[in-house]
Design a protein that fits this description.
Length: about 130
């Protein structure tokens, strides 16, 4: 009788450990922040997180310096910008709405964050390589 109780306890402990490991594997990650050269940042969110949609980008301008923030998404890293968001035309501080659309899982993506002022793009920017 003592052996079967020990076996049941060991089995229950193994099942509980398995549930903890499985739950950790399915946890959603928060959006990734990509800093602009100055005055703001962009965000990439691969998977839904709370009220934030998956496969989405947004731009955030934090400084009232005359420069805005633009975020571009290249799906498949083929050199074509497929999705763009910007803070142009808004007073700082301001974050654009999330712009999303379904992308096949594990598709490689590039996210570029640049400073913009009217039709001028600052010559340096930040780039994040990720996957949907």
């Amino acid at each position: 009788m003592m052996k079967s109780s020990a076996a049941r306890i060991a089995g229950a402990a193994a099942m509980a450990f398995g549930l903890v490991v499985a739950a950790q594997g399915t946890a959603a990650a928060a959006p990734k922040t990509i800093d602009a050269v100055f005055g703001g940042y962009g965000e990439w969110n691969a998977d839904p997180y709370g009220s934030i949609p998956g496969d989405s980008i947004r731009a955030c301008d934090t400084d009232a310096d005359g420069w805005g923030i633009e975020v571009k998404l290249d799906i498949g890293r083929d050199g074509t910008w497929d999705r763009t968001v910007s803070t142009r035309g808004h007073n700082s501080p301001y974050c654009s709405p999330w712009k999303s659309g379904n992308i096949k899982e594990d598709t490689p993506v590039s996210i570029q964050v640049t400073n913009v002022n009217g039709g001028v793009t600052y010559p340096k920017g930040s780039l994040l390589l990720s996957h949907a």
